[in-house]
Amino acid sequence: MTLLSLSQLTASYGATQALFGVDFEIAEGEALAMMGRNGMGKTTTVRCICRMMPAKGALVFDGHDLSRLPSHRAARLGIGLVPEGRRCFRDLSVTENLSAAARPGAWDAAKVEALFPRLGERRGQLAGSLSGGEQQMLAIGRALMTNPRLLILDEATEGLAPTVRAEIWAAIATLKASGMSMLVIDKSLKELRGACDRVVILERGRSVWDGTMSALSPDVVEAMLGL
Amino acid sequence: MSRERLLNALLLAGLVVVPGWALWADEPFTITLATRAVIFALAAVGLNIALGMGGLVSLGHAVFFGIGGYAMGVLASHAQSYTPLYDGLFTLEGTKAMPVIWLVAAAASALAAWLIGLLSLRTSGVYFIMITLAFGQMAYFFAISWPAYGGEDGLSIYVRNGFPGLNTLDPIQFYGICLAWLCLALWGHARLRRSPFGLALDAARQVPARVQAVGLDPKRLYLVALVISGAVTGLSGALFADLNRFVSPSMLSWQMSGEIMVFVIIGGVARLFGPVVGAVFYVALEHWLGGVSDYWQIILGVVLLAVVLFGRGGLIGLVCGKERPDA
Question: What are phi and psi of A15, to 5 degrees?
Answer without folding.
Answer: -85, -10
